[in-house]
Amino acid sequence: MRKIISYIVGFSLLFSGLGIIGISGMTLQNNQDERVSPDLSALLFTAAQSSSSEQTSFDSMMKTILGEGPKSDYPLGTLIWQYQISGGSDNSPKAIAALDDINGDGFDDVVICSEDNNIRCFSGWVDGTGDVLWTHEIYSGNIYQQHGLAITEDINGDGYNDCVVGATGGARLIRCISGYTGQTIWTHDTHEYGDGGWVYQVDCGYDYNGDGIRDVVAATGDDSSGAGPKRVYCLDGVTGESLWERPLGGPGFAAMGVKDFTGDGVPDVLAGCSDEAESDGFGKGINGATGAVMWSYPAAGSSVWGVEQLDDVTGDGIPDVIIGDFSGHIYGLNAATGTQVYTLSIGSVIITRLEQLGDVNSNGYSDIIPAHSTTTTTQVIDGYTGGVIWSHVVADQPWNVARIADITGDDIDDVLLGTLFNTNFVYFLNGMNGSELKKISYGQAVDAIASIPDVIGDGSMEMVAGGRNGKVNCLSGGENATQHQVNITADFSAAPLSGTVPLVVQFTDLSTAENTTITSWAWDFENDGTIDSTEQDPTWTYTENGTFSVSLTVSDDDISDTETKIDYITVLPMGSTIVGIGNITGGLLGVSAEILNAGTLDISSVNWSISLDGGVVLLGRSSSGIIAMIPVGDSRVVADTPIIGFG
C-alpha cells in the first residue's frame, strides 16, 4: 500500500461547544490509513461531525416500544423496526435511500450504506427487528455521505431498480449494484488517475447519450500527491464507461444532473468544487453533451458541497440552480449564464448539502433546506427570493435533513431532521412553519436520515435514521398524511403526420399528471422497442419510407403510463406526391382546380392558393383558402373568379 500524505491530527480544532470555529497549527504527517481523505475540505467535514464523547447506549424509550410487540396503529414517531449494525470499527450509517420492492411484500425496501464498508438492503416492512435482504461489501471503501448513494432504473434487465454508489477510503470507485441481488453490475475505478480520488457524490437523474437509460454523474477528489482525478465523470449507465470527464482544477465534492440550460436538448450538470489549494470554492455549470464548462461562479467559502436545482426564478424559461459553500453562503444562480440572482448567509457554518422541498409558502416555486454544521438553527430558504421562510432552533447541529411528503394534512411537504454530536435527536417538522410535530431522543449522533414510502398502510411516508454507533430505526410518519389519488396519462401530438423522405417531425408531449410530476419521457418513434429519445418535446427525422406507429411512456419514477398511436406517421419515397393537382378548368371568368389526396391517410388543414398571370386580368389575380379535410382517395375543388380587365 502506498503511503498517503494527509492533513491529520497535527492541527488543533477550536470548538465553540457546537462546532468548528477555526483551525490552527496545521502540519503534514505520514499516514497509511486510507480512511483519511487527501482532500482538506473532507477533513473539515469529518471533524465538524465528530465528538470526543459519544453516547453508546440504545435509547431506552425505543427499547420499551420494541418490547410492546406489534401495534394496530402507528402514531407519529412510533418505532416500526430497529436494527443494530455491528462488527466494524465504525458502524455508522452514512446514506439511506428507498428502493422499489424486491421481496414481493408490496412495500418499498431500504438501502443503507455504513462506514463498515457494507451496503445493506433491508425489507421496508418488518415488525420488530430489521430484516437484511442482501449485503454488498466494498473492500477498503465506504460511502461517505448521503449523496454517495443514488437509486437508478433497472440496468441489468431483471425488472428491479438498481443502485449506484461512490466509495472513499482505498477503494475510490464508482459502482453499480443490482438492487435485487446486491451483485456488482459494473465498476469504474478512479485509480486511472494517480492513486484515485474519493467519490463524494453520485447522481443518476438523466440520460446523456440518448440510449434511454439514465447515466451516472460523479464528483471526485484528489490523491495525496496531486495526481488524483479531481473531476466530474459522466458515465454510461449501462457499462460504466466514460461518456466524458471534466477536470475541475481542484477536488470535486458535488455533481448532479440538472435540466438543459444550454438549449441543445441534452440535460446539463451542476458541480461544486475547490481550487487546487482548497482555499476558494466554485460552482460550475457543465454542458451535459460535451463536458465543457459553460460558467464558473466563485463562492466566498473554501469549498462548495451543496448543489441543487431550482425552478425557473429568472423568467427565461430555464430552471435555475442554487449552491451553498463552506462559509455559510447560499447563492441562487441563473443556470444559463451562471450570474448571481440572489445570495444570503446563514452564519459561519459548513453547508454540507442542499435539499429541495416542494413549495412550502405557496408562491409557486420549490424551496430549499440546507444541512449544515456549527449552529443549532435550521431554516428553509425561499427558492424564488432567497429569503428565509422560517427558522427553528433544534437541540444541536442540523447535520442531516430530508424531505417527507405531507404528514400533517395541509398538502405541503414536511421535514425530517437529525442532530449531532452531543445532543442527539430526530425531528418531524412542519414544512409550512417549522414547528415541531415530534422530537425523539436518539442516543447517538444522527449520521443519516431519509424518508421512505409508506410501509404500514396508513398513507404516510416513514423516517429511517442511522446513528453513530450503528443504530437504525424506522419510525412512523403518522396517520395524518394528505391522501391523494395519483395518476399519469400519456398523450402527444406530432406535425407533420405525413411527407416524403427525409421527413422531419416535431413531437409535442401532451401528457397530464394528477398530484404528481412527470420526470421522464421515453419515445419510441418506430414502435420497435428501442427508446429513440428522452426529451420532452423531441424532433425526429424519418429516413426510410413506411407507416410508423409511435409510443410515449411517461413516469414520475413511481408510476408510468404509455400511449401508442398506431400507423401514426406516413413516410413516402423521395419524389412521391401525397397531395396532387387534378383537372384545371375555366377561363377569363373563373378558374377551378381539383386537389387530390393520393396518400394512405386522411389529410387535414390543406392550404391552397391559385395565382393567375396575364395581361387581361386586372383584379383577383390570386385566391387562397384552407380545406378542412380530404379523405383518402377523395378530392376537393377550389376556384378563383377574377374580375375581367386589362392588366
CATH topology of the domain at 487-572: Immunoglobulin-like
Read across the widest sheet, the strand sequence of neighbours is: 9-5-37-36-35
Share of helix, binned:
under 10%
Give the N-terminus to C-terminus distance in angstroms: 97 Å
What's the number of helices? 2
Largest sheet: 5 strands, mixed
Highest CATH level, the class of the domain at 487-572: Mainly Beta
Structural class: mainly beta
Strand content: over 45%
What are the segments in which pLDDT stays under 50 over at least 5 consecutive residues?
1-32, 51-70, 615-620, 643-647
Describe the structure.
Among the domains are: 4-48, no CATH class; 487-572, Immunoglobulin-like (Sandwich), CATH 2.60.40; 579-644, no CATH class. The chain is built from two helices and 53 strands. Helix content is 3%, strand content 47%. Strands 9-5-37-36-35 form a five-stranded mixed beta sheet, with helices on one face. The chain has a four-stranded antiparallel beta sheet with strand order 6-7-8-10, with no helix packed on it. A hairpin with a 6-residue loop joins strand 33 (425-429) and strand 34 (436-441). It is elongated. With 647 residues, it is mostly beta strands.
